Amino acid sequence: MSFFVTGTDTEVGKTLVSCAFVHHLRKTHARVVGMKPVAAGTVDTPHGPDNEDAVALRAAGSVAVPRELDNPYCLPLPMSPHLAARAAGQVIDLDLLADRYRQLAALADVVVVEGAGGFHVPLNDTQTGADLAQRLGLPVVMVVGLRLGCLNHALLTAEAIRARGLKLAGWVTNRIDPAMSAADDNIAYLSDRLGALPWADVPRMNTPRPEQVVWRPEAGRA
Ligand SMILES: Nc1ncnc2c1ncn2[C@@H]1O[C@H](COP(=O)(O)OP(=O)(O)OP(=O)(O)O)[C@@H](O)[C@H]1O
Ligand SMILES: C[C@H](N)[C@H](N)CCCCCC(=O)O
Ligand SMILES: [Mg+2]
């Protein structure tokens, strides 16, 4: 059992929610690991350049794995993955990603795979994050960053997920904009349209702590 986490956009809280989901799944599964197949943008760490999302997911998980399995592409520049790869003289290969995912899944009970950006983010000249999700065949968790415009983005994303024959297993709201008007009414509308309540409603946190996110009981049932 594994999940592909996508979002209504980049910077909507996919990493925070993915880490929180890993913590939640660790209550019922011994070996839970995060995967960031494609990361764009690195920071300096004591071990050399690394990606913040990959580092956070690694810290949340309960299995230590080689970096080539949990983050096969770690590209230096924070831009669309197809451009970050081009700038690094690489081409993102979905066969390679599927193979690394299979190896990682063999070491874990659950893998939480965090996509890059939104669902249709370009990975190379012809393929997008949707192709990767489809290739891995995973149920999808959609993170909705609550701000004006998110209703349209959430409905488009849900439609795209289903158009790929994938299951929208669950969705999570993240209150990224403390000034948003009628946030609860937006959640109610989406709950009605998506046919389910969000698995979690993440508050705006002064210091984000993924382990403090409260999940509904059905969260994590694919
Ligand atoms: N609920 C929240 N409260 C406070 N800060 C938040 C919250 N959600 C996200 N953030 C902050 O907003 C920023 C973007 O969140 P995050 O990195 O999880 O987004 P993302 O969707 O994973 O982005 P990317 O597309 O780059 O992977 C981070 O600095 C994160 O700590
Ligand atoms: C660099 C950033 N943090 C993400 N990893 C990549 C977001 C790419 C978005 C591309 C786009 O949809 O225009
Ligand atoms: Mg992220």
List keywords for this structure.
alpha/beta; six-stranded parallel β-sheet; Rossmann fold; single chain; 222 residues; two-stranded parallel sheet; binds adenosine-5'-triphosphate; binds 7,8-diamino-nonanoic acid
Descriptive report:
- The chain is an alpha/beta fold.
- It has helices at residues 14-25, 52-60, 67-70, 81-87, 94-105, 129-136, 150-163, 183-194, and strands spanning 2-7, 32-35, 38-40, 43-45, 48-50, 73-75, 110-114, 140-145, 168-174, 200-202.
- The strands form three sheets. It has a six-stranded parallel beta sheet, with helices on both faces.
- Strand 4 (43-45) and strand 5 form a beta hairpin.
- It is globular and about 45 Å long.
- The mean pLDDT is 98.
- 7,8-diamino-nonanoic acid (DNN) is lined by residues 10, 40-41, 78-80, 116-118, 121.
- The site of magnesium ion (MG) has 4 residues, from helix 1.
Ligands in the structure? adenosine-5'-triphosphate, 7,8-diamino-nonanoic acid, magnesium ion
- First-to-last CA distance: 7 Å
Shape: globular
Instruction: Tally the structural domains.
Output: 1
Q: What is the residue-averaged pLDDT? A: 98
- Residue share in β-strands: 15-25%
Structural class given helices, strands, pairing?
Answer: alpha/beta
Topology-level CATH name:
Rossmann fold
- Provide the CATH top-level class: Alpha Beta
CATH superfamily: P-loop containing nucleotide triphosphate hydrolases
Order of helices and strands: EHEEEEHHEHHEHEHEHE
The largest sheet is: 6 strands, parallel
Integer-rounded radius of gyration: 16 Å
How many H/I helical runs? 8
Helix content: 25-40%
Task: For the largest sheet, list the strands in their spatial order.
Answer: 2-7-1-8-9-10
Poorly predicted residue ranges: none
CATH architecture assignment name: 3-Layer(aba) Sandwich
Work out the number of β strands.
10
